[in-house]
Design a protein that fits this description.
This protein is mainly α. It has two domains: 1-28; 31-185, Ferritin, CATH 1.20.1260. It is built from eight helices and no strands. The protein has helices at residues 2-26, 33-45, 52-77, 81-107, 115-131, 137-140, 145-170, 174-185. The radius of gyration is 21 Å and the shape is globular.
């Protein structure tokens, strides 16, 4: 009887060790994730006006700022010179685009709510929130800045393209549409 208890206790101990090892090996942290997660959290909390032009500009500013902050970290900490350069080039270009979006937003006033657009954007934001769960994008990260930057940029381009495609269906502002088309073409 004691031997059975001893064996059972040993097996239980091994299972706990394997479980702990599995949890630590799948939970990789990257210094690039916090800015992206903060951006997605802000997107989720954003109360949409329903105006496709205004909401698209505002959402793209929030999403873009998170990715710029992430790219700044990559530019400073990446080990591959090509990745460092790619990150810095992105920061420079996106910073100009964010300034342009901010100027556009200051001139806009939400005027024409569109429920279909609002619902589609809400679904896209929810999909982004789900990707930030531990088994989503974080599970793809390696803990290596260079690899993580590439993975997160791929997700950003996909999300920005999805937002832009939805906007192009409902938007009216020619200047904003030009930015959206550029995002889809990336």
């Amino acid at each position: 009887m004691k031997r059975t208890s001893f064996v059972a206790a040993g097996l239980f101990s091994i299972l706990l060790s394997v479980s702990a090892l599995a949890q630590t090996s799948t939970t990789i942290t990257s210094p690039l994730m916090p800015p992206v997660q903060q951006s997605v959290t802000k997107l989720k909390a954003l109360q949409a006006t329903g105006d496709p032009d205004f909401d698209y500009v505002f959402r793209m500013r929030l999403l873009g700022q998170g990715v710029v902050d992430m790219a700044k970290i990559a530019a400073a900490q990446a080990t591959d010179p090509a990745i460092k350069q790619k990150a810095q080039t992105f920061v420079d270009a996106k910073t100009k685009e964010l300034a342009e979006l901010e100027a556009m937003q200051r001139q806009m006033r939400p005027t024409r709510p569109n429920q279909a657009y609002t619902q589609q954007q809400s679904q896209q934001v929810q999909a982004m929130v789900l990707k930030m769960q531990p088994d989503g994008v974080p599970a793809k990260l390696t803990g290596k800045i260079d690899d993580d930057f590439t993975a997160l940029m791929t997700e950003y381009i996909r999300d920005a393209s999805d937002f832009s495609k939805a906007y192009l269906t409902y938007g009216n502002n020619a200047s904003v549409k030009a930015i959206a088309q550029k995002m889809v073409a990336q």
